[in-house]
Amino acid sequence: MTTAAADTENRVNYLNADYGIKSWLLTTDHKRIAILYLLSITMFFLLGGIAAVLIRIHLLEPNGAIFEPGSYNKLFSMHGIIMIFFFLIPSIPAVFGNFLVPMMIGARDLAFPKINLLSWYIYMVGGVLTLYAVIWGGVDTGWTFYTPLSTSYVNTNVLSAALGVFISGFSSILTGLNFVVTIHKMRAPGMTWFRMPLFLWAMYATSLIQILGTPVVAVTLVLVALERVFHIGIFDPAVGGDPILFQHLFWFYSHPAVYIMILPSMGVVSELIACFSKKRIFGYSFVAFSSVAIAVVSFVVWGHHMFVSGQSVYAGIVFSALSFVVAIPSAVKVFNWTATLYKGSISYQAPMLYALGFIGLFTMGGLTGLFLATLAVDTHVHDTYFVVGHFHYIMVGGAMMGYLGALHFWWPKITGRLYPDGWARLAAAIIFVGFNLTFFPQYMLGFLGMPRRYAIYPPEFQTLNVMSSAGASVLAVGYFIPLVYLLWSLKYGPVAGPNPWGAKGLEWETASPPPTENFAQIPVVTEEAYAYGAKEDHVV
Amino acid sequence: MSGHVIPKSTYFLIFGSLLALTALTTGMAFVDLGPWNTVVALVIACFKASLVLLFFMHLRWSTPLNRVVWLSALLWLVILIGLTSIDFLSRSWTPMSEGWETSALHLPAPPTDLLHWR
Amino acid sequence: MSDSHAPSALAHQFEDLQQQQESASLGMWVFLATEVMFFGGLFAGYTIYRNLYLPGFEAGSHMLNVTIGALNTAVLIGSSLTMAMAVRAAQMGKRSALVTFLVMTIILGLAFVLIKLNFEWRHDYVEGLAPGLNFTFSGAHAKSVELFFFFYFAMTGVHALHMVVGMGILAVLVVQAWRGQYGADRFNMIEGFGLYWHFVDIIWIFLFPLLYLIGGRY
């Protein structure tokens, strides 16, 4: 055992192939870039999380426990901006996409390794600038920068925050570009589109959204900046502009952006369900096409954020109908995952717990999305905690769980070490309980009428708020535990070996951690994805 | 690997056509076609753009995927402008009382001491 | 004829030169798709406001100089020709022709920007038609005219910015081409940049009628 461990320590892999800070900061190895992203987004998650903790403490009291309303506005804006642009949007694509896309298709690196490194630097520059904006002085417009508040009325760091987000958008675009070209052009011999792991389909679909949507929010933020400086009236009704035009341009990206945040997690869940059921994903091509369908349809539903904004009712009807349509491919996935579980050989290691948690919580969040897509219901719950509950079920119960599942599943591959699964399962359970305790009361609060983004609330809502804050403390504990055992595993965890889960996929056929060039020889693919054992009846 | 080399004459022909079309669209602006002026101008612009795309940018000899990428971008642009427009075009379909636009505008005046550069 | 640096022409992540060339080409087309959407936001705003305030937009458009606009269009189309010829020269491994055509492209691009800066923007600023900086027009539809001129400056400004960045890259390409870095088997950068430059030309092909020819000139 010790000898084997010593062997592993001595084998050259991407982690020890080169030493020194320069070898990391100037790397073009997609795996090292993934680690750079892992460290940065963990830092942003902690900062956004601190803001969340402060919000929940503040909301223990109906009159607000800590902050003045102006400061509270800056706090939730900071939470939203950091979590969305600097944690959720990059998370899985920048960490696991970067690490796994070349490995899963049997390539040595992405199509444009130097652009990949550039993406990280752009992300860091945008991130640092935005951190400056939200911490020194703050922004209080919410992450949505609605006009004319942001352009004409607030005396906060709107410009710097907008610039920071603008810059980081190019990181997103370049990552998406890299993935699209890589997946189209660099698949190993025999790796046809329909032999790719579903994670790659999800990354491809996510990249489509990043490429087509992000530029629009970029130019919109430029317009906000110009309006803020020059006051010409692009979005200012007093001089002929229309603030709703801003909302159209903003949400044209920001709605598909939420699918940037969820699609990668869905891809992860496909991998996890397949591996821990030891079974091929049921309806593989349906799941594959549903990823692309979600990406496409996500672009024609943005008006559902604007039902009560003054948008025309007829546009509202169109957007409402299309929003119902976009739920269908998501449902297709949930049905197919469930069918995969049926008669599978199921084991309940931590990654699987996260996957199962995802399916349940995402379904709940998704269903509440349908309530919100219904014009009549939305009129009642728009801008209430019902919306907050909805998107946190998707973002935290969905995307975050997918991220943690990915982290636990591929940790042995990335680091070469195993973590203690008992603690991991405990943490998953604590997260699940804490999550529901935090966010389920928010559905109720919203339905009862508590508005979002308010620093104070009527006293009759206090019980539910306290429940939510209590849940948040449980959730925080749940997030803290993996930090401990994962770091512990780096030094003391058992050596993982190439394939500790017995999973199918090219990334599991090379050493853990992988060598810099990924494969000694480019593999030739001869079997379908998820070719787990027993021959099945013809699966689509 | 050099691929398909396009003859100089083709390039010059396209260049000439583009100049002619520019002259045409400028000239047509001086002809009174009412609302059709815009349509004619845009059609000519699309034609010019197509010449640049097909010949200067080699889309004519390029992989189908490159063509799909370009067409998808155009489609997405149409989605952006089109779906946004359905809002603005249909606002008047809902009857509103007279003078509602200005009556609702009781916005406080924006502060004049804004730090614009932040 | 062409320096055969075959071993170093192929980047390590690619299997062969064709995969590399097709990836570079696809990468640039995907980038152009992002540029379509970036300008698209401006075109969307322009479309909405033109529909809402057509008289003001017509009035503003009539204040632009069609002759200079058309001339500049011709200049830019000329630069597209020289760029296409540059790619062709690279394809055929002709180093001095490549350098010549790249330099001609810079000159024509510079001409475009300088004509615009000096005869259009400076003129508009002096005439009091520069929103935010010096806007003094107070005739009919003044607010809509101001909005029109905002879009005029924003769209031609972003376009000009793309040209300036392009010329910066061209300068680098000229130096590299001069040093013999490009040959018949390695000119992906030239071809890729050519795509970018033609795209900027296409944007202008649409900007010209949309900004200069609104409402006709009869």
Output the keywords.
heterotrimer; B: 118 residues; mainly alpha; 4 helices; 62% helix; C: 218 residues; Four Helix Bundle (Hemerythrin (Met), subunit A); two-stranded antiparallel sheet; disordered N terminus
Describe this structure in words.
- The complex is a heterotrimer of chains A (540), B (118) and C (218).
- With 540 residues, chain A is mainly alpha-helical.
- Chain A has a single domain, classed as Cytochrome c oxidase-like, subunit I domain (Cytochrome C Oxidase, Chain A), CATH 1.20.210.
- Chain A has helices spanning 2-10, 21-25, 30-58, 69-88, 91-105, 113-135, 149-153, 158-185, 198-230, 243-277, 284-297, 313-341, 350-373, 375-381, 385-415, 421-448, 462-492.
- In chain A, helix 5 (91-105) packs parallel to helix 15.
- Residues 536-540 of chain A have low confidence and may be disordered.
- Chain B has 118 residues and is mainly α.
- Chain B has a domain at 18-63.
- Chain B is 62% helix and 0% strand.
- Chain B contains four helices and no strands.
- In chain B, helix 1 runs antiparallel to helix 2 (36-56).
- Chain C is mainly α and 218 residues long.
- Chain C has one domain (38-212): Four Helix Bundle (Hemerythrin (Met), subunit A) (Up-down Bundle).
- A two-stranded antiparallel sheet of chain C has the order 1-2.
- In chain C, a hairpin with a 3-residue loop joins strand 1 (129-130) and strand 2 (134-135).
- In chain C, helix 4 (66-91) runs antiparallel to helix 5.
- The longest helix of chain C has 37 residues, at 142-178.
- The interface between A and B is medium-sized, with 34 and 25 residues.
Q: Give the proportion of residues in helices of chain B.
A: 55-70%
CATH homologous superfamily annotation of chain C:
Cytochrome c oxidase, subunit III, four-helix bundle
C-alpha Rg of chain B (nearest Å): 23 Å
Number of strands of chain C: 2
Distance between the amino and carboxyl termini of chain B: 52 Å
The domain count of chain C comes to 1
CATH architectural type of chain C: Up-down Bundle
